[in-house]
């Protein structure tokens, strides 16, 4: 039996590996939020395969001996063809924001579905056929399926260490040829070799994946005389170091630099990850910093004398040099992004390492666990975009912790871009207000100042209230550089606005002109917020918290309709929410179709209505519950490990492996009903416990060595995953006893509601929080226990 299930192990590995590889393709070639489509397409294929198996179960069983080796081979052909078609798809996500150009892009989206659906449909058909052909060993079959999926995830991540993201799919296709060779005889082995060679040759000849011309890296890649100085592949992303005349230090410097006798920001190398610029890297050591007094980032230094600075993000090494040029006595640097941190320590290609300086300390501490006393906690302008996990430093809890580290007179300096939506800045101001309240400050507005240019903004959060002298100094700093002081306590009215900033509104269908001749939307909103009357519209300006650490998306769910109508005024980060909603709508329609199958094919199922009703609760609850818990745990693991890719990989692999072991164990239990209730109860208790205990445990472990954190994570996942792996095979076996056709229908239900789970989980996490998502997933296992047919216990 074990050898007979090795082809299932391999095709499951190929299916999950290709799924992960395709998400990397979207991240590099287009935008990462469109990777949700891959998950949707994959689970749709699995769900539809179950429906087809219900309708044609007897025919599939009669041909099982042929289909078991044939389906992996068909997957190989479909995978190669789908990759060629996906790589050729001219999808342009920015054209979705213009009604005049949106329709061709909708056709391109359908093109992705048409290209990739056959591969995942065949994968689902192969897995469900294994269930139907071996009904007496359901636990073992499901265990091999999950273990193979875990192996595929590991294989994809290992391949990312050595292969360009555009080469991952072709590298995984040979697993399917091996599956066919193991499942069939000599003729099938010959066919596997021939088809593999032909498929890889076709991919080599016709697949031409390319980076979208709208990715930030596209223009500098195509500048005359530009050079790619280095490329590095990693599960974290695909890194490129570029050199051309357009690459300069990206900092906000006054237009008055010439009259102030200051140089322009220096030329630099540009470091890109997955086509997005994450930092400028200096060409020499020490980096040039003559421009620093004219930068928006210099504002807090004008208020402090020789401050001891905690710097979050080094901007490739430029920010420590700037801080010293602005008079810092000592700078402690924390750079969480590993490639940037290694560049500081050891250099990167032609980029020299940071020069030794007794005034600068490069700390290995986590940004949320930094120790020491400081006069200034200064967040670099590119810190938020350099690494996904850096968003946790923008939460209410993180700001309150940094306030507690300040000596008298100290302050935080927190940047945010206002190039696209002023509401982002208002949300950061609201978070700073909440952090001050958490720190016991009765009047937060007296401790806040907001200074901005046309493109960027700094929120200054002071330990003590701003006095008249500090406000006057800050106002003089701003006016000398043509910056705007949007808020400070006691700020005189009637100030001239140097950089007009209008409010973006979906309610009015465009851009508001403001209340005066010179608009400052941030000034108006900050005043209203701090007065206790925040603006209420389509955008969410609530504070970021440890449970909801996302600055975007801002669009409230009730305003999605208005957002779709006015997509042209929304920045790219907000489109991810609309993608989620669209995927959820499609998934809900699919789930309704799959769930309604008994009404169309009752003769095929031949099952009592009461049992069908229980199945309609049991298997959808499993599909929803497993993925909700998994997605919530991935978020916590990403913070724990300081790396979203590592968190995703370890959670996915550990949960699949231990769930697979749980499934195998389920096949050996003597009392399935009792085992089901115990497993569901354990999943419920551990899920609820994780919702309340995990955030504190993660925060306490952040300073431990990486290997220790990874081991602790696996140990924490093991019992929960074992419990979560048991109900599905137990349910398949129990419901199969009521009618053999229930088995493929159950597979279809589980797949269909797994499609629903991914976008739904993301909406719950972003809209309500990670802990509520865990509680919702745990509650699904309560529904599983209730829906179990008690007569079988």
Structure notes:
The protein is of the alpha/beta class and 793 residues long. It is built from 28 helices and 14 strands. An eight-stranded mixed sheet has the order 7-6-5-8-9-11-10-12, sandwiched between helices. Strand 13 and strand 14 form a beta hairpin. 56% of the residues are buried. About 1% of the residues have low confidence.
Primary descriptors:
alpha/beta; 8-stranded mixed β-sheet; single chain; 55% helix; globular; 28 helices; 10% strand; 14 strands; 4-stranded antiparallel β-sheet; 793 residues
N-to-C CA distance: 28 Å
* CA-based gyration radius: 28 Å
Overall mean pLDDT stands at 90
- Sum up the overall morphology in one term: globular
Write down how many β-strands occur, each being a DSSP E stretch of 2 or more residues: 14
Largest sheet: 8 strands, mixed
β-sheet strand percentage: 5-15%
Low-confidence stretches: 513-517
Q: How would you sum up this structure in a few lines?
A:
The chain is of the alpha/beta class and 793 residues long. The protein has 28 helices and 14 strands. It starts with 5 loop residues before the first helix and ends in a 6-residue tail after the last helix.
Any chance you could write out the topology, listing elements then pairs?
Blueprint: H1 6-29, H2 36-55, H3 57-62, H4 64-88, H5 99-133, H6 138-159, H7 168-172, H8 174-183, H9 186-206, H10 218-221, E1 227-234, E2 237-243, E3 269-273, E4 276-281, E5 308-312, H11 318-325, E6 330-334, H12 338-346, E7 360-363, E8 374-379, H13 383-386, H14 396-403, E9 406-417, H15 422-438, E10 448-452, E11 456-462, H16 468-480, E12 484-487, E13 504-505, E14 510-511, H17 521-530, H18 560-565, H19 572-595, H20 597-600, H21 602-605, H22 609-641, H23 644-666, H24 672-701, H25 706-725, H26 727-736, H27 742-767, H28 770-787
Parallel strand pairs: 5-6, 5-8, 6-7, 8-9
Antiparallel strand pairs: 1-2, 2-3, 3-4, 9-11, 10-11, 10-12, 13-14
């Amino acid at each position: 039996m074990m050898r007979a299930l090795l082809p299932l192990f391999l095709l499951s590995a190929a299916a999950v590996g290709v799924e992960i590889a395709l998400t990397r393709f979207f991240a590099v070639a287009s935008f990462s939020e469109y990777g949700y489509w891959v998950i949707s397409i994959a689970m749709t294929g699995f769900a539809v395969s179950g429906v087809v198996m219900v309708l044609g179960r007897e025919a599939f069983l009669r041909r099982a001996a042929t289909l078991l080796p044939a389906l992996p081979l068909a997957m190989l052909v479909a995978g190669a063809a789908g990759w060629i078609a996906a790589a050729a798809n001219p999808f342009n996500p920015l054209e979705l924001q213009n009604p005049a150009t949106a329709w061709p892009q909708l056709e391109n989206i359908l093109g992705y579905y048409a290209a990739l659906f056959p591969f995942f449909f065949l994968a689902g058909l192969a897995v469900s056929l294994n269930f139907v052909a071996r009904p007496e060993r359901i636990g073992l079959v499901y265990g091999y399926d999950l273990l193979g999926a875990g192996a595929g995830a590991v294989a994809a991540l290992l391949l990312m260490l050595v292969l360009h993201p555009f080469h991952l799919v072709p590298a995984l296709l040979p697993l399917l040829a091996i599956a066919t060779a193991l499942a069939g005889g000599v003729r099938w082995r010959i066919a596997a070799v021939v088809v593999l060679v032909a498929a890889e040759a076709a991919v080599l000849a016709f697949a031409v994946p390319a980076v979208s011309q709208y990715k930030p890296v596209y223009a500098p890649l195509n500048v005359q005389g530009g050079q790619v100085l280095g490329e590095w592949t990693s599960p974290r992303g695909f890194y490129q170091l570029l050199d051309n005349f357009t690459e300069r230090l990206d900092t906000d410097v006054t237009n008055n630099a010439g009259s102030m006798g200051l140089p322009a920001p220096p030329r630099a190398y540009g470091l890109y990850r997955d086509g997005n610029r994450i930092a400028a890297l200096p060409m020499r050591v020490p980096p040039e910093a003559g421009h620093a007094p004219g930068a928006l980032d210099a504002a807090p230094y004008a208020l402090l004398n020789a401050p001891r600075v905690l710097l979050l993000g080094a901007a490739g090494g430029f920010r420590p040099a700037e801080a010293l040029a602005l008079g810092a006595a000592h700078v402690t640097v924390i750079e969480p992004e590993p490639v940037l941190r290694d560049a500081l320590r050891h250099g990167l290609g032609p980029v020299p390492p940071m020069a030794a300086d007794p005034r600068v300390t490069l700390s290995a501490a986590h940004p949320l666990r930094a120790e020491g006393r400081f006069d200034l906690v200064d967040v670099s302008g590119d810190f938020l975009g350099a690494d996904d996990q850096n968003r946790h430093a923008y939460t209410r809890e993180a700001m309150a912790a940094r306030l507690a580290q300040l000596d008298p007179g100290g302050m935080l300096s927190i940047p945010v871009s206002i190039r696209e939506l002023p509401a982002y800045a208002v949300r950061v101001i609201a978070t700073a207000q909440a952090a001050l309240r958490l720190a016991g400050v009765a009047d937060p507005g007296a401790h806040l100042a907001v200074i901005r240019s046309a493109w960027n903004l700094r929120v200054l959060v002071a330990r003590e209230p701003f006095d008249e002298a500090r406000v006057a100094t800050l106002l003089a700093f701003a006016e000398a550089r043509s910056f705007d002081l949007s808020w400070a306590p006691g700020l005189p009215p009637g100030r001239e606005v140097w950089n007009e900033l209008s409010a973006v509104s979906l309610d009015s269908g465009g851009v508001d002109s403001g209340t005066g001749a010179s608009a400052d939307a941030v000034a108006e909103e900050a005043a209203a917020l701090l007065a206790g009357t925040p603006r209420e519209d389509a955008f969410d300006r609530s504070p970021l918290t440890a449970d909801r650490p996302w600055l975007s998306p801002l669009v409230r769910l009730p305003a999605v309709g208005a957002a779709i109508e006015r997509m042209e005024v929304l920045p790219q980060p907000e489109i991810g929410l609309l993608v989620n909603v669209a995927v959820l709508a499609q998934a809900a329609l699919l789930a309704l179709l799959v769930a309604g199958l008994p009404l169309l094919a009752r003769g095929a199922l031949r099952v009592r209505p009461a049992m069908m009703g229980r199945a309609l609760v049991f298997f959808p609850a499993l599909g929803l519950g497993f993925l909700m818990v998994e997605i919530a745990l991935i978020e916590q693991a990403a913070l724990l490990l300081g790396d979203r890719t590592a968190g995703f990989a370890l959670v996915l692999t550990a949960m699949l492996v231990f769930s697979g072991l749980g499934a195998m164990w389920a096949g050996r239990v003597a009392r399935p009903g009792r085992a089901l209730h115990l497993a569901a109860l354990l999943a419920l208790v551990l899920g609820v416990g994780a919702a309340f205990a995990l955030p504190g445990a993660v925060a306490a472990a952040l300073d431990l060595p990486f290997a220790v954190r990874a081991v602790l994570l696996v140990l924490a996942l093991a019992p929960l995953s074992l419990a979560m792996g048991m109900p599905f095979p137990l349910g398949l076996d129990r419901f199969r006893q009521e009618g053999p056709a229930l088995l493929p229908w159950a597979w279809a239900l589980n797949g269909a509601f797994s499609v629903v789970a991914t976008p739904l989980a993301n909406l719950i996490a972003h809209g309500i929080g990670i802990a509520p998502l865990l509680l919702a997933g745990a509650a699904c296992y309560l529904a599983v226990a209730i829906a179990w047919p008690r007569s079988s216990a």
